[in-house]
Amino acid sequence: MKKMEQVHCPGDQHGEGNLVPDPELSSWEALPVLPDHQTQGVELVWAYAIPVLDKKKTSRLVKEVSAIYPLVGQGHLKRVRACPDKTSPHALEILLCLASQGGDTVEGVRPLSELLPSGQIDWSDLGEPYLVHVPAHPPFTRAQFEEAKLHWPTVFHENKHISNALQGLLFSKEDKAKMQIYMEKAIHTARQGAERGMKAVGAVVVDPATEVVLAVGHDCSNASNPLLHATMVCIDLIAQRQGRGAYSFNAYPACTISPSGDRAIPLPAKSIQPGVVRKYESRQDGLPYICTGYDLYVTSEPCVMCAMALVHSRIQRVFYGASSPDGALGTRYKIHSKEDLNHHFEVFRGILGTECCSLDQKKQGQQCVSSQL
Amino acid sequence: MEAPTGTEEEEEERGNGFSVSAEERDRWIDRAMHMAQEALESGEVPVGCLMVYNNQMVGMGRNEVNETKNATRHAEMVAIDQVLNWCLRRSKNPAEVFQRTVLYVTVEPCIMCAAALRIMRIPLVVYGCQNERFGGCGSVLNISSDDLPNTGTAFQCIPGHRAKEAVEMLKTFYKQENPNAPQSKVRKLNGHKR
Question: Of the candidates A288, A332, A315, which has an alpha carbon nearest to the alpha carbon of residue A231?
């Protein structure tokens, strides 16, 4: 815990001993909010398979078929499988090509003469093609792999990061202790905002490489500016820390930044947490492009506006406590992993979930969604 | 008649019982185009927007991301702040003003701005071209019309006003590239996305 002395930020005089450590650690879990294609069942598409009548010619046939149908983008599918039907006269089958782009519409079985026009391949060693269901994408998790190979033999390169995330192995006890301290700070800030009549939502931006808390903010939205959600406040505080920014938070003493002058030099790679990629752009002031490389801790799940603001800001990871009904990082959308967007980041929910849940409930009359851990 | 999207029922529900004539639309979008052109000439992302209340321009904006180092300072967000200021100076209730304000913008609002417009309860957005990279009114997500009971109200869109010109400006800008942005990952990822 010695390291935590690096966590400094002005306005940090809340000595109410509110950093209650370890006993609480076991009561929450950081749950990854993964993109649908990493957690859902296996999507299937139709493909043509052809029986191999003469087993000895398999390798030649595979070569010839692959030259005609290279199956680019289906590298996860093995070309040959042992025939699943034991009573069949042939033992092996070759995967020829996909039957259609979509999973549902099938063009109808096409004869061999159409799929492999004469002259290209000697048909005499092949049976009539038929339709099979094959996995559309490579499996990400072992569960997906087990399901995929029931349909067609599939290559599996386990993504350790995703597997660990799913098994809750991504964070050590030490990591969790730090995460708890950051979230406690966010909760404390939320309460400070609530005391001034604001919505009880708090947020903290941390540089995970140096463990420095860079900015602390709470929801400042009111009738005269309804858009100053805690995340938007923090994004502007980081801009202010970099010498710019668009708002003044002088009226809100709990919204603070750490001085940028003492930005610590990134620690050696050893101390960097798994999944953390350090990306300092070579900028004159040595500071990263907006929020690149930074983590956000926020007591409740960001709304669509805030989630997309985090995409624009190139945040690295987001940790939130309680889910929100229209939340955009897991509940209604997964904007952090939306394929069409130009930046993606990791999201974990449930950090001090119960405490975060109880924060803003009375005011909004919302149901506590995050207790379904 | 003025609003091809959305049903009459929805209009009544939202109580936005006002309409803008084609002539009005052309006049305001023309001004927005001029702003975008100016932005382009000064090396900024060519997006221009203005907010009109009671046939009066109460806010305008262009992208200020580089100046503020705050990636959320899109033209629409800047314009919203101007309208809020306008309300403050005239002791108007922002909620009442925004509910009768039309946004004219040269490019489809992004997902973030679309959500902000919902929160502000702006009823109608007239825009030029689609925003293929970030659009929140149909291109990437449908924030403008999705059912989000806790995120303000849905709004109507009238797209396609001078879309070609707006696209041309964007193309010209992206040829120069934004020197302040980090290298895009999209192009690198294209091969093995998903």
Answer: A315
Query: Of B11, B13, B38, B76, which one is the catalytic site residue?
Result: B76
Chain B partners within 8 Å of A314 (Cβ)? 71, 182
Establish if A316 touches chain B: CB-CB under 8 angstroms: no
| pLDDT of the residue at B190 | 40
Chain B nearest C-alpha distance from A241 (Å): 10
Note if B23 is an active site residue.
Answer: no
Separation of alpha carbons B162 and B167, rounded Å:
9
CB within 8 Å: B182 and A227: no
Q: At what angle do helices B75-89 and B111-120 cross, to 10 degrees?
A: 20
Is A236 in Cβ contact with B72 (below 8 Å)?
yes
Average pLDDT over residues A34-53: 87
- In this prediction the ipTM stands at 0.85
Average pLDDT over residues A154-174: 85
Q: Which residues are bridge partners to A98 per DSSP?
A: A47
Residues B9-51 pLDDT 10s? 333 333 355 678 888 899 999 999 999 999 888 888 899 999 9
Cα separation, A240 vs A260, in Å, equals: 9
The string of pLDDT tens digits covering residues B148-178 is: 999 999 999 999 989 999 999 999 988 876 5
CA distance A212 to A257: 11
Helices (H), A71-202: 112-115, 142-148, 160-166, 173-195
A62 CB burial (10 A radius; 0-12, 13-18, 19+): middle
Provide CB contacts within 8 A for B42, sequence distance 6+. none
Spell out which residues of chain B touch residue A294, defining contact as CB-CB under 8 Å.
Answer: none
Question: Residue B136 is encoded by which pair of tokens?
Answer: 């929140």
Question: Residue B140: its chain A contacts at CB < 8 A?
Answer: 338, 340-341
Element (H, E) at A32: strand A31-32
Residue A61, CA distances (Å) to A120, A130, B180 in order? 11, 17, 53
Q: Distance from A177 to chain B by nearest Cα, in Å? A: 31
A40: tokens are: 């859902």
What are the pLDDT digits (tens) for A97-145?
A: 888 654 455 666 777 878 887 777 777 888 888 889 999 988 888 888 9
Neighbouring-strand partners of residue B110: B135
Residue B54, token pair as written in the block: 């009671």
Per-residue confidence band for B192, with pLDDT thresholds at 50, 70 and 90: very low
Query: In the Cβ-directed half-sphere of A196, how many Cα atoms lie within 13 Å?
Result: 18
In a mutagenesis test of the A interface, which of B67, B111, B121 is the best target, namely the one with the most A β-carbons within 10 Å? B111
Mean model confidence pLDDT for chain A: 82
Q: Is A227 on the interface with B (CB under 8 A)?
A: yes
Question: Would you call B70 and A335 a contact, using CB atoms and an 8 Å cutoff?
Answer: no
Q: Could you say which residues from 329 to 348 on chain A have a Cβ atom under 8 Å away from some Cβ of chain B?
A: 332-333, 335, 338-343
At A285, the pLDDT band (50, 70, 90 cuts) reads: low
